[in-house]
Specification:
The chain is of the alpha/beta class. The mean pLDDT is 96. The longest helix is centred in the last third of the chain and has 20 residues. One of its GO terms (molecular function) is oxidoreductase activity. InterPro entries: Gfo/Idh/MocA-like_OxRdtase_N, Gfo/Idh/MocA_oxidrdct_glycsds, GFO_IDH_MocA-like_dom, NAD(P)-bd_dom_sf. This is Gfo/Idh/MocA family oxidoreductase.
Length: 378
């Protein structure tokens, strides 16, 4: 495990690069944490950056270069499109700043590895979404599983199927391009949760398909326009974990039937159902083995522990970790292992072969029950 020393004191300055759809929720939450101050936002579209800055009461806006040049910014939150995540994050490291990146860490292993190596060499940190897994939902379940509530975990099932992001996104083409699709867009939520709960993935096998070669934009100024589908729009992944558990995961943008957020883990002493890993909170419950045929299952509800917030929680944990010298939780190495798992699944779907996941990740810490995002701690 990497060794860290405390850095700096006082409120941690934040810069944001990329002010697309997801930036609103980030900016709202980051502004609510007393330990952080958003100093500047940047985007390729300078007018859009200025509009977001005005909307959220941020003093400065400009380009990505303006964010990187700001002397008060210690962490840059990278909300650009997935295809340039690793490139932009590498520029952030080169500018001497820590990174919090939206998922995935990158779209290929070489650039993601180069990013992490550069950060290590510079003594800087990389944190990677999803930070939903740091919320009370997944963290409460993690503590319960580690305490033996379901015995030894045996197998898991996850499912995410719906009609696709063109239902709401005005520019959805990038979500069907190389480095995206349901595997890279939604897969990080499910695979990060599974790795949090079951440990590193060892081997994967997958099948993928495209329902159509083109999709149609349904909302916004470009409604009615078509765009190409470059990657499987439905993929099913089998995973074998290093500790012996197995999992089956379905990810689809092709289903009129909406069924998302399914995460179930069965062990030797029971089955636990978890919240949607794209959310910070939700139902957690355990069912035990029946004692006689015809008995009704009895569900034990598990109360969540912790304060529910939203996206930006991981950046806050990173900031506090920088100040105190402790490891942060949503690490670049975890993000890299999840990327490796997805790249391996993509390769398996293309070749029909089982693929070994070459990377691993060390022990993953848990969010303390008493972590209060709204307290001033630095």
């Amino acid at each position: 495990m990497a060794q860290f020393t405390p850095q700096g004191s006082g409120t941690v300055g934040i810069g944001v690069i990329g002010v697309g759809n997801i930036s609103d929720t980030y900016l709202e939450n980051l502004a609510s944490f007393p330990d952080l101050e958003v100093l500047i936002v940047g985007d390729l579209d300078l007018d859009r950056a200025a509009s977001q800055a005005a909307k959220h009461g941020i003093a400065l806006s400009g380009s990505a270069d303006d964010v990187l040049a700001h002397a008060g910014v210690e962490i840059v939150v990278n909300l650009t499109i997935p295809a340039v995540h690793a490139e932009v994050s590498s520029r952030i490291i080169a500018a001497g700043k820590h990174v919090w990146s939206e998922k995935p860490i990158g779209t290929d292993l070489a650039s993601a590895r180069a990013l992490l190596d550069a950060a290590d060499a510079a003594g800087l940190r990389v944190g990677v979404a999803p930070d939903t897994v740091l919320g009370p939902g997944i963290q409460t379940a993690k503590r319960a599983i580690e305490a033996g509530l379901i015995g030894r975990p045996l197998f898991a099932q996850t499912q995410m199927q719906w009609q696709g992001p063109e239902l709401f996104h005005p520019n959805p083409a990038f979500l069907f391009a190389h480095g995206a699709g349901p595997l890279f867009d939604m897969g990080p939520y499910y695979f990060t949760s599974l790795v949090q709960l079951l440990g590193p993935v060892a081997t994967v096998a997958a099948l993928g398909m495209k329902a159509t070669e083109e999709r149609t934009i349904l909302v916004g100024d470009n409604a009615g326009a078509s765009f190409p589908v470059e990657v499987p729009s439905t993929i099913t992944v089998l995973a074998q974990f290093e500790k012996g558990a197995q999992a089956q995961s379905m990810l689809s943008f092709d289903s009129p039937l909406y069924r998302t957020g399914v995460v179930e883990i069965s062990g030797t002493e029971g089955t636990i159902v978890l919240p949607d890993p794209n959310m910070f909170s939700g139902r957690i419950a355990v069912v035990r083995a029946l004692t006689a045929h015809g008995d009704e299952p009895v569900w034990e509800e598990i109360p969540e522990e912790g304060i529910v917030v939203g996206r930006g929680l991981g950046a806050l944990d990173l900031a506090r970790a920088i100040r105190t010298g402790r490891p942060h939780l949503a690490t670049g190495e975890l993000g890299y292992h999840v990327l490796d798992t997805m790249v391996s699944a993509q390769h398996s779907a293309a070749t029909g072969a089982f693929v070994n996941v070459e990377s691993t990740v060390g022990e993953i810490g848990s969010m303390p029950v008493d972590f209060d995002p709204f307290a001033r701690t630095v």
